[in-house]
Design goal:
Layout: E1 6-9, H1 13-24, E2 30-33, H2 37-46, E3 53-54, H3 58-63, E4 70-73, H4 79-91, E5 97-100, H5 106-117, E6 122-129, H6 131-137, E7 140-143, H7 147-160, E8 163-164, E9 167-168, H8 178-208, H9 212-222, H10 230-240, H11 250-253, H12 263-274, H13 279-291, H14 294-300, H15 315-348, H16 354-360, H17 372-381, H18 392-415, H19 420-433, H20 439-450, E10 462-468, E11 471-477
Parallel strand pairs: 1-2, 1-4, 2-3, 4-5, 5-6
Antiparallel strand pairs: 6-7, 8-9, 10-11
Helix pairs in contact: 1-6, 8-12, 8-13, 8-15, 9-10, 12-13, 13-19, 15-18, 15-19, 16-17
Length: 480
């Protein structure tokens, strides 16, 4: 029996598709193992051309792999991942490589990498984006792990990754949990992007009275310009689809309760701990949460809203305003996401090339979009760019679009149409560019009730006011 250079553990749809992708690339021989033998037998029987080497125990699986043994785990994140790692550690040796390709929470990856490293085995947390189709035909891959593991793993992952402009959509993100951290933020940006598109659709439909099919034409046209992206493309397809049973637009038949798998919440929670605002991502995540509480929405339906029906006088002009507002808000979502990656890298001592991250998102992943090239250009020009939105291209786009952006948010507010991602992104933009923020008052309040101290604009040091009714005294506070 020939030895396999790569193995896959976990043969549900994602694992099976990834194994097939690996086997289809020249130079790869793939060992496969699943806890239930039926899935292994089925995969091997259905795809004899792949030349899989089936294993029916962890011992057989390890024996079928050439050294350094390399295995990709594709099981549900959580206890199942830990259980598989424990079994592989028993049969692997120092220098071998265990890769977790699931949607793991990055602190878990940091914990696992530390524990596995003590055995001499390399552990890699790899974010894999693109869903079932990407796993089969070419995903965007975000691996972390040691430099040693990348030497063996890099060529294998490059062989299966999506390709954009001749470059494979994979790069070594950084050590331990860096790969899963970046995948988490990718998913957070995805939440924001989807919510913004949904708000754009809602505003156009309510304001112009266009049908879903007519709005599909709008999105199809938008996909030919600066908004060109996978999500805009599929939005047009979703809006054009009619329900086979009722004949109604499918979007009108689908229950308006959006699901979430945790990565959006993780992105927001992590950003809070890092002190990095990601308001667009947060509002997109909260919008899904609100949609999932129909019992509250049913009770609140009696609350008053605007008296007048919403309609626009010039449909074409309004649609163009929405397009510009969508692009401006999208810029903010990506800018906030890259801010979080930069902050995470600083906190966890990772060296992450932000330009390289944007390049591997150009194909294979859900947020693939034309303007990712512009992000790469921005970081190529200034690697330590403090705010992505301030780079030349994006600053000019925001300048062009801000008037339309404001008109859309005002229209939505006056019409009583929820647009949390649009409005929060605009509020962030205005806060970012403000010369002075009301945080000075917040600091005064905090000092009054909790003696939290504050700093001054006219002298160095930390200060506290001895608040005493109508008379107060200020004292300098020694913080050393």
């Amino acid at each position: 029996m020939n030895a396999a250079n790569i193995g896959v553990v976990g043969l549900a749809v994602m694992g099976s598709n990834l194994a097939r992708n690996l086997a289809s690339r020249e130079g790869n021989t793939v060992a496969v193992y699943n806890r239930s033998r039926e899935k292994t037998d089925l995969l091997v029987a259905e795809h004899p051309e792949a030349g899989f080497i089936p294993a029916f125990s962890y011992e057989e699986f390890a024996a079928s792999l050439s050294k350094p043994r390399t295995a990709i785990i594709m099981v549900k994140a959580g206890r199942g991942t830990d259980a598989v790692i424990d079994e592989l550690v028993k049969v692997f040796e120092p220098g071998d490589i265990i890769v977790d390709g699931g949607n793991a929470y990055f602190p878990d990856t940091i914990r696992r990498e530390k524990a596995v490293r003590e055995t001499g085995i390399n552990f890699v947390g790899a974010g894999i984006s693109g869903g079932e189709e990407g796993a089969l035909n070419g995903p965007s891959i975000m691996p972390g792990g040691s430099d040693e593991s990348w030497v063996t793993l890099g060529p294998i992952l490059k062989s299966i990754a999506a390709v954009a402009e001749g470059e494979p959509c994979v790069t070594h993100i950084g050590h331990n949990g860096a790969g899963h951290f970046v995948k988490m933020v990718h998913n957070g940006i995805e939440y924001a992007d989807m919510q913004l598109i949904a708000e754009a659709y809602d505003l156009i439909r309510r304001g112009t009275g266009k049908t879903p099919s007519e709005i599909a034409d709008v999105f199809e046209e938008w996909n030919k310009g600066e908004l060109e992206s996978y999500l805009i493309e599929i939005t047009a397809e979703v809006l054009r689809q009619n329900d086979a049973e009722t004949g109604k637009p499918l979007v009108d038949v689908i229950l308006d309760q959006a699901g979430a798998k945790g990565t959006g919440a993780w992105t927001v929670q992590t950003a809070l701990s890092l002190g990095t605002p990601v308001s667009g991502i947060a509002e997109a995540t909260f919008a899904r949460s609100l949609s999932s509480h129909p019992e509250q929405r049913a009770v609140a339906a009696t609350l008053p809203g605007p008296d007048e029906e919403f309609s626009v006088a010039d449909a074409d002009a309004f649609i163009e305003d929405v397009r510009q507002a969508l692009f401006a808000s999208k810029i903010i979502a990506y800018s906030q996401g890259f801010d979080e990656i930069r902050a995470g890298a600083a906190e966890y001592d990772w060296t992450i090339d932000l330009g390289a991250v944007s390049k591997i998102w150009r194909a294979g992943c859900i947020i693939r979009a034309q303007f990712l090239n512009r992000i790469a250009d921005a970081y190529d020009e200034q690697a330590d760019l403090p705010v992505l939105a301030t780079s030349t291209y994006f600053a000019e786009a925001l300048t062009r679009g801000q008037a339309a952006w404001r008109r859309v948010v005002v229209a939505a507010t006056q019409a009583g149409i929820p647009s949390p991602a649009f409005s929060s992104s605009l509020a962030y933009y205005d806060g970012l560019r403000a010369e002075r923020l009301p945080a000075a008052l917040v600091q005064g309040q905090r000092d009054f009730f909790g003696a939290h101290t504050y700093k001054r604009i006219d002298k160095e040091g930390t200060f506290h006011t001895l608040w005493s009714g109508d008379r107060s005294e200020i004292e300098a506070v020694d913080t050393h």
